C-alpha cells in the first residue's frame, strides 16, 4: 500500500501520511480539544494532604490510600505501553495518531502526578519502593496487573491486521482498555478519591484527580469512536461471539476490582462498603456496554451521590462547564476542588 494514499478502512495495514482530504475529522477535533485543556502537576497543591493523612484519618482510611496509590503507581504506565505497542501501530489514520500522541503525553503526565503523590505521601524510600512493587507483592493489585498485561500481550505478535481474526482480536484489546482498565479500574479508583473528598479529606489528591478524570474520559471517548468507526466500516466483526467475549471480559474485570475493594476496605471504612463499590462498578460496566451498543448486563444503580456525574458524556460536559474552562490562554481564577 502506498504511504501517501488513504486506506479504505481504519484498520487496513500500512502507513497513511495523508491529512488532506481528512477521512476522520472527529479524531482531529479530539486532538484539538485535548490541546486546549493542558494542565501541569505543579498546579496541584498537596499542602493540606499530609496533615489530613497524619491527623484526620483513621488507620483504615490510611490503608485505603496506601493501596490506592500503590495501584496508581503503575496503572497509567500499563495503559501507555498498550498505546505505544499496539494502538498506534494499527490505527491507520494520521489524525487518529495525532490524538494518540497527545494521549501518550497525558499518560506520562498522570505517571508524573502519581509519582509526585507518592513522594509527598510516602517520604520513606523503602516504603515507596514497596508501593511500586505492588504489582508483584500485593495479591489484589497483582491480579489486576495480570489481567491488564494479558490483554496488552494479546496482540503484540501482530505486525499487521491481515485477517478478520486479527482485527477481531485488536478490537477486543481496544474494548478491554477502554471499558475495563480506564472505564472500571480507574473509575473505581476515582470513586475512592471522591468519597474521601466528600469527607473533607485530601483535597490535593482530588484536585489532581479532576484533571486525570477528565483526561481518562476523553481517552475512553476516543477508543469508543475507534470502535464505532470500525463498526461502520466492518460490521461483520460485531457478532454474537464478540459480544460474549466482551461480557466475559467485564465479568473478570469486575471480579478483579471487587477483590481490590475487599483489600482496600477490609479494615472497615465508615460510610463505604464493598457491596456499594460493587454496585457502582456494575453500574459503570452497564454504562460501558450501552456505549458499545450492547444490552445492560448487571442492572445496578449508582449508590454514590458524589459520583452522579460519572457517565462519560456527563463527565465531559461537567468538566467543559466547570473545570476544563481553564484552557491555554485563559486568564482568571481557577477552582480545581469545587464540590460536585
Write the layout of secondary structure elements.
Blueprint: H1 25-36, H2 49-56, H3 59-90, H4 94-121, H5 125-132, H6 134-137, H7 139-153, H8 164-198, H9 203-233, H10 240-264, H11 274-291, H12 312-321
Helix pairs in contact: 1-4, 1-9, 3-4, 3-7, 3-8, 4-9, 7-8, 7-10, 8-9, 8-10, 8-11, 9-12, 10-11
Give an overview of the whole structure.
The chain is mostly helical and 340 residues long. The protein starts with 24 loop residues before the first helix and ends in a 19-residue tail after the last helix. The protein has one domain: Orthogonal Bundle (Ribonucleotide Reductase, subunit A). The C terminus is likely disordered. 66% of the residues lie in helices and 0% in strands. It is globular, with a radius of gyration of 20 Å. It is built from twelve helices and no strands.
Amino acid at each position: 500500500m502506498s504511504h501517501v494514499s488513504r486506506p479504505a478502512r481504519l484498520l487496513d495495514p500500512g502507513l497513511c501520511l495523508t491529512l488532506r482530504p481528512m477521512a476522520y475529522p472527529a479524531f482531529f477535533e479530539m486532538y484539538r480539544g485535548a490541546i486546549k485543556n493542558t494542565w501541569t502537576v505543579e498546579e496541584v497543591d498537596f499542602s493540606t494532604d499530609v496533615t489530613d493523612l497524619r491527623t484526620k484519618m483513621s488507620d483504615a482510611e490510611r490503608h485505603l490510600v496506601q493501596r490506592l496509590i500503590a495501584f496508581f503507581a503503575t496503572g497509567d504506565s500499563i495503559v501507555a505501553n498498550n498505546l505505544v505497542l499496539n494502538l498506534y501501530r494499527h490505527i491507520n489514520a494520521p489524525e487518529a495518531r495525532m490524538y494518540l500522541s497527545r494521549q501518550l503525553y497525558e499518560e506520562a503526565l498522570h505517571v508524573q502526578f502519581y509519582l509526585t503523590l507518592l513522594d509527598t505521601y510516602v517520604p520513606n524510600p523503602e516504603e515507596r519502593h514497596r508501593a511500586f512493587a505492588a504489582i508483584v507483592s500485593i495479591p489484589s493489585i497483582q491480579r489486576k496487573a495480570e489481567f491488564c498485561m494479558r490483554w496488552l500481550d494479546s496482540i503484540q505478535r501482530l505486525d499487521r491486521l491481515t485477517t478478520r481474526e486479527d482485527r477481531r482480536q485488536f478490537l477486543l484489546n481496544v474494548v478491554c482498555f477502554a471499558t475495563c482498565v480506564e472505564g472500571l479500574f480507574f473509575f473505581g479508583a476515582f470513586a475512592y478519591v471522591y468519597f474521601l473528598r466528600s469527607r473533607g479529606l485530601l483535597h490535593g489528591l482530588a484536585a489532581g484527580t479532576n484533571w486525570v478524570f477528565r483526561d481518562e474520559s476523553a481517552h475512553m471517548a476516543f477508543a469508543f469512536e475507534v470502535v464505532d468507526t470500525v463498526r461502520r466500516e466492518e460490521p461483520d466483526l460485531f457478532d454474537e461471539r464478540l459480544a460474549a467475549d466482551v461480557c466475559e471480559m467485564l465479568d473478570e474485570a469486575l471480579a478483579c476490582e471487587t477483590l481490590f475493594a475487599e483489600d482496600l476496605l477490609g479494615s472497615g471504612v465508615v460510610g463505604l462498603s464493598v457491596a456499594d463499590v460493587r454496585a457502582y462498578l456494575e453500574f459503570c460496566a452497564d454504562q460501558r456496554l450501552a456505549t458499545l451498543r450492547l444490552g445492560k448486563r448487571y442492572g445496578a444503580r449508582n449508590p454514590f451521590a458524589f459520583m452522579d456525574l460519572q457517565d462519560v458524556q456527563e463527565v465531559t460536559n461537567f468538566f467543559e462547564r466547570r473545570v476544563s474552562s481553564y484552557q491555554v490562554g485563559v486568564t482568571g481564577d481557577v477552582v480545581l476542588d469545587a464540590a460536585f
